[in-house]
Amino acid sequence: MNQNSSNPVTAYLARLDSAMVGVEPSVRAEIVSGIREELAGLDPADAAARIADLGDPALIAAEARAGTTAPVAEPAPGRTLSIVAVLVLIVGSFAVPVLGALVGLIWVSLSAAWSRREKLVMWLVPVVSVVVVLAVVAAIEALNPDAAAPTLPVGFAGVSHLALLIPFVVPPIEGIVLLVRAHRRGWRPEALLANRGGVGGPA
Description:
Strand content: under 5%
Structural class: mainly alpha
Number of helices: 10
Shape: rod-shaped
Distance between the termini: 65 Å
Radius of gyration: 34 Å
Largest sheet: none
Number of domains: 2
Helix content: 55-70%
């Protein structure tokens, strides 16, 4: 008969340590050391009684595992709607110019996957793009009032048509950017991640 089998406390602690394999190391060490200290000052009779009260080491280990199991991540709010919204923004801009982009922008605005700041920027970018293009067109026309004899390169004559291309180009680019940003952070807005101590990573 070896020393472990002749000493109930030593044998119990050995069984407990073996049963705790797979439990988080810090939790395992805390439980084993706590029970060891508790049993150390007891006489054999009291130690045996306390061991009986503690119960099977396998049950203690099972409770420890249950207490340290990582919580299941909550699903992203409205993820399906967010994905559909950004796809409508990208595809709709080509399929039904202007109207498709408008519907996509509205859907994205209703989604919980993006912050207010991102949604505001999403609406402002097309407007600012149109304003910039029109300002360039106005400046070119002011510099070249004689359309019959243009003094500027021929390429500048088509600048006015850029305004017509904006509904085809800008919303899809916005949709791709929003898609990538939302995917990196698990389709959750930046504010929600900040409140949970997360970072915007992988709407």
